[in-house]
Amino acid sequence: xxxxxxxxxxxxxxxxxxxxxxxCCYGVVGLALGIIGLVLASKDMKxxxxxxxxxxxxxxxxxxxxxxxxxxxxxxxxxxxxxxIISMIGLGALQDPALLQEKIRQMQGL
Length: 110
Known about the structure:
The protein is mostly helical. Helix content is about 80%, strand content about 0%. It has helices spanning about 10-20, 30-50, 60-90, 90-95, 95-110. Helix 1 packs parallel to helix 3 (about 60-90). The radius of gyration is 20 Å and the shape is rod-shaped. The termini are far apart.
């Protein structure tokens, strides 16, 4: 019996890395990538548990799953941070640096 590679192990690894790298994109892109990585990882984990002796790249799957979890957490925190900032300062202030500085001065004066 020849050993095979898990079908989505490399994809899960790449998605985990990309979800961490894109955590500064308002948290939305990386969150989606991390969740997709976790879904693919759970499918491959189930496949691996049925016949573990058949597959050789479980390590890549495991690392990808861990990276996807880290990416989801970082992106969730990033998304929460941006929601709080937008609710406190406003979207217009984020786009106009002068207005942003004025809002910060007002908040410091309180």
